[in-house]
Design brief:
The complex is a heterodimer of chains A (546) and B (514). With 546 residues, chain A is of the alpha/beta class. Chain A has a domain at 50-112 and 299-381 and 497-545: 3-Layer(bba) Sandwich (FAD/NAD(P)-binding domain). Chain A has helices at 5-29, 50-53, 79-90, 134-142, 188-206, 227-230, 237-243, 249-263, 272-280, 302-312, 359-366, 372-378, 445-454, 457-471, 475-478, 503-508, 528-545; strands spanning 44-46, 64-75, 96-99, 111-113, 118-120, 125-127, 146-149, 155-157, 168-172, 175-178, 294-296, 317-318, 321-329, 332-339, 344-355, 383-393, 407-410, 418-420, 432-439, 479-492, 515-517. In chain A, β9 (168-172) and β10 form a beta hairpin. Chain B is an alpha/beta fold. Helix content of chain B is 55%, strand content 14%. In chain B, a hairpin with a 4-residue loop joins β2 and β3 (260-264). The relative contact order of chain B is 0.08. The chains are: A alpha/beta (546), B alpha/beta (514). The interface between A and B is large, with 35 and 41 residues.
Amino acid sequence: MHTDPKYNRRIFFKQLLAGSALLTAGMQTSCKNKNPLGHITGGIVGANSKAGHLLRNIDALPKPSRQINADVLIIGSGISGLSAKRWLHQSRIKNVMLIEMDDHFGGNAHHGKNAVSAYPWGAHYIPVPDSRNRELIDFLKETGVITGFDDTGVPVYNEYYLCMDPEERLFINGMWQDGIVPEAGVPAADKEQYRRFASMINEFKIAVGTDGKDAFAIPLDHSSADEQYRKLDKITFGQYVRDLGFTSKSLLWYLEYGCKDDYGCNLETTSAWAGIHYFASRKGRGSNTGAAGVLTWPEGNGFLMENLKKQSDNGDIFSSQLAYKIQEHESGTEVYVYDVNRKESYTVLAKKVLMASPQYVNKHLLGGLGSAIREKAVADFHYAPWVIANITLSKMPRQRGFPLCWDNVIYGTASVGYVDANHQGLVNSIKRVITFYLPLVNEQPDVARRKALATKYEHWLEIITAELEHAHPGITECIEHADVWIWGHGMIAPCPGFVWGESRRVAAAPIANKVFFAHSDLCGISIFEEAFYQGIRAAKEIIQSL
Amino acid sequence: MEKTKSQPTNRVGILSHLLLLLSVFVIATCGLIYELIAGTLASYLLGDSITQFSTIIGTYLFAMGIGSWFSKYLDGDLLRWFIRIEILVGIVGGCSAPILFAIFEHVASFRLVLYTFVGMTGILVGLEIPLLMRILKNNFVFKDLVSNIFTFDYIGGLLASLIFPLVLVPYLGLIRTSLFFGLLNIFVALLLLFRFKEARQYRNRFIVIISLSVIVFLVAFAYAEKIMAYSESMTFQDKVIYSKSTQYQRIVITKNNRELRLFLNGNLQFSSADEYRYHEALIHPAMQALPNAKNVMVLGGGDGLAVRELLKYPQLQSIKLIDLDPGMTRLFQKNEMLTQLNKHALNDKKVQVINTDAYNFVRTDSNKYQLIIIDFPDPANYSVGKLYTNSFYKEIYRILADDGIVVVQSTSPYIGRRSFWCIDHTIASVGFLTMPYHTYVPSFGEWGYVMATKNHSWKNDGTFAAGLRYVNAATIRDMMFFPPDMAEVPTEINRLNNQVLVHYFENDWGPYAH
């Protein structure tokens, strides 16, 4: 029997290959779902405040049906509002009331919790503070974050709250490296620039202006007025470092990472003064930690926020209460408030009103009270939009290089990486919650904000998983749940000219000794310490005026 | 008459006839070997050997049925089909173990690949015997044919089942066994190709395939160790008698005629031959000084061997064992071989086994203990490293009775000299008085412990439990002496926010890692 040899050979090879084809198919079917994100539960849980949007049409709100009297009314329960409340409480000022339009407290220190871990919805750490920042040191002592002082008077920190080791890592050139300053595969010439930058920063750290104040301090209002430093606020950070001959791509990446991380800005939208402040203002000390030490909690700054609230809550702090109009009254100031749950309005007649709300909200409330100068100043306030996702993982997938840290940054990506919420948890958990931070820096804030609010959940998932997959192939499979929060006005942007310009001082000035202001946007940088300081400053002003 | 009929005809000579029967024998041996390899490999990698073996055998037999059924559709040159299938069996069966080992950690659904392999091998093997019967049907009376083929088939089966555990796995290992039998199958094909004139027209083509596969197989044979190391660092010298991946770790128990060894994630935890030295040294120096102790807590030590030593003291009323992994404690409560070793310690009514995270348990516990035994794995990573920090020892200080004693297994003071003294200094930093000591455990080497008290309550003049093989007052005096090559070195304190111990440990043990 003669058969065509070609035909037979073909069949033979086919059969031979059938085995391997079947195997490959077997391996791949398990990886290829029709919709690779279909198994992930969750959604957009926070976007621009629903209650806040009622401000756009206040005529539709019901007329006030009753009136409450208060000595001080605080509007807003972010860190500055709570800090002011605590200060007034500790100063024994009676009849103080605090209202918050959202159904939760804390502003950017908002936090959540699921079966795996507590997690932050915003700010998640503070650096160990400068020991000259007495108010903050006292607060940390009261909350048990500082457990005592050593023989030389240096604070001893609660070691459950100091960020545990390993602290941070960077994914670069296909591997995780220890620390986030790019090292792996970085040329020697670049490292020389790193050294030059580091020594420059070290000089700024100890620099003192002609007025004897630190060049860069927290709170920043304690910084020197010396023009040689303040003039740095007039140019961009990008311009500044380029003029000094810093050209290393990885160094510039690192500097921009700093701007994104703290300000939600990039090198071209951050003022040089603010850019340097990020690196040169951390001067804290601890008997059991260095100046680079940070304090953090699974729920992020939610821990500090809850403690602030606990220390000031007299049953006079209320959520879901939207202040929608403020007007003068012969015996003080009248604030119209809408109770979102009861769907009714009332007025608060307050001797003093503290607006611990951001200026983009205040301009709607103040109406005729605000002067033209004030309105002009407020137009200078720009806010960086952010997207934050809390992602529950069934496990951390295999990875190359340095093990999981508290802060995990991926080189050359849009986000500033993710934080392991379980890191401070001590319990050996296989399931994890990671908090993913994405500042939207590549477009004008209002454009980015509008686009972000129009973007669907599925699209955010695609963006987030694409970034994570880059460093953790196969992580998408491990994602069980992912919630996304859009912060339309995430934080005040320290654009050139803003920190040492007139606008924030104009916006912070009290109106008629009746309406006061406290918010981190009045500092130009959105960090806990500034908001905490703003609250105390405003509370002191109020006490003096009473 | 039948006798003459059963004589080989001219078409297939006596030699060829024997050759074909020999191939039945080889096929049967190879077939069973592939099945055993798949079963062993599955129980090794996936754990739960009963389920693995049972489902693999079932799938394999079923696939053979499919093969047999398909055999009726093969027509034409049967000898050619047979050779072809023989080569395919060799390739698929031969590379099954190396491929399965290599991909184990890299594919999401390992089982799917495993059963695809088992199914393919089964189908091909199932094709062989019916084909062979059809080839030989003209040369034999049916009853002789059936009897001959199945006789050789079953003898092959017996041979396979004997040499697999006794010779192949111990001497060749799974990967080489698999490759070796693949080569054997291919060799049969080669033999048939040359023995039969009919095969001449396609001989050259098949030879190319065969040579290519043989080269690949030989290379793989030479690099079998590398494949193995790639899949997992599992260079166990002895027979693996138990292996299971729990949620937290991979438990492997090996056995030779002298001892039983327990490995967690590839690290030796004890050898039954000398663990008494380790555990007597862990327990008795402290217990002889605690005649009134009632409550004891053991952290780690899910093997129950430390608890076994504790139970030698009748004054103890309650022993709490905190071990993260229920898979581990359950094994040492249920497995007969292991309960013999720990004398059913974990089933004793004084003993309470709690499977939870030790840090969290200690942090929230408010009881007082006269003795706390800390027997964690070495601080090789950050999550274990937390359990060696000053913060953790502060919690221990809080729950230890004023006249109580803590004993901490503290890695080797010889190899991990800085690690050992770092543990000692960290314990001392929270207010304990430490008494470091060490002993020689043949299977580990020089091993260290730190005993700690809140005051100077410890004395070496108490009564020991009866029947100890190693520890007495003189041994304890000896153990407290540190020769110069293990003497104290300065170290930092291990804290949650620096985890220096993990770094020391990496550096100390780095040169010994393979």
